[in-house]
Every structure is written in C-alpha cells, then in structure tokens.
Amino acid sequence: xxxxxxxxxxxxxxxxxxxxxxxxxxxxxxxxxxxxxxxxxxxxxxxxxxxxxxxxxxxxxxxxxxxxxxxxxxxxxxxxxxxxxxxxxxxxxxxxxxxxxxxxxxxxxxxxxxxxxxxxxxxxxxxxxxxxxxxxxxxxxxxxxxxxxxxxxxxxxxxxxxxxxxxxxxxxxxxxxxxxxxxxxxxxxxxxxxxxxxxxxx
Length: 202
Hints:
Elements: H1 2-14, E1 16-22, E2 28-34, E3 37-39, E4 42-48, H2 52-60, E5 62-69, E6 72-82, H3 88-94, H4 98-101, E7 110-124, E8 132-138, E9 148-150, H5 159-163, E10 169-170, E11 177-178, H6 188-192, E12 198-200
Antiparallel strand pairs: 1-2, 1-5, 3-4, 4-7, 5-6, 6-7, 7-8, 9-12, 10-11
C-alpha cells in the first residue's frame, strides 16, 4: 500500500503533472495534465478525443509522469488504458473547475485514462540534509530498487562514508550498508571504494 500513499500526494497535493509520450516525429513530447482521481485500480486523468495527445495515448499505451511541488516529487512510468466515460462524473465533482472549461454537455468530448500498472519514485529534498527517497509500485508492477549497494569484500575503511553528501551509510557493520531511502545516487561511494566492492543496481 506504500505506493498509494504517494499516489495520494500526486493527486491531492501536487495535482498537475508533466506527462511524456512520443510524438509523430518520433521525439518525446510533454504536456501538463491534472491527475484528478485515484483508487485501488490506479490513477486517472482525462483528455479530449480531438487532441494529438489522445491519439498518442491510444497508440502507445504507456506514459511517463513527473510532478513536483515544494521540493517533493513523484514520478511514475507505466501502462495506461482508456476507460471511456467511467469515473468522469466523479472527476468533475472532485475538480469543479472542469465545469467551467467544459460546461454542460461539452464534456462529451472527454475520455478518461487510467494509469494501472506502474512503478516509480517519491523524492523529497525539503530537508536538504536528510533527503527522502521511496520506490513506488501500483497494480501488478513491483517497486524497482535503484541506487548503489555494497557486496562482499568491504573492509570497513569508511572511505565511502567520508565522501557521502547525506552520510547515509551505516559504518557500524561490515560490509557497510547504504540506506537507500536517503541516498542521492551521486556515485561518490563507488568512486572512492579502494576494494571496488560498491555496485550500481541495474
């Protein structure tokens, strides 16, 4: 359920997100789209059927989403599906400004999309000396662990700790342990390791 804690942040706190698709020219395109609703099935947004964005969503079935506010960010990459008018009335009720954009029956131009299998990350630098990073997964996706880890061969020399901006490495044990939820992924630990026993995931 940890993923949905951050999905709530995406929809209710941040709300407006950048969505990336691939344009007809083969290059990435982005636009700002409001994330309007979420439930156990996924995250919901809408767009008009006449837009190029709609055509891209229908053709590609996959998007990347990034949103930030007050030095916190949520990112997702995942599958989408068109669910027609389902949840449209709920989304208009939760987002009353939409009634001014699409008054009366003009909302018939809109269709709803659901991000339903996705993984990503919550990243918070509001406290710069103690950043927070958490992996997110919704639907059938598993959270992807990124960053650096320490394998066998560590001698506990503490060189990695000495160069770590966040001091997020536990040097009370050998091999030392990198606390992923505070790691910047800067790679200084890997560069400093005399035994080359720090590796990057993926």
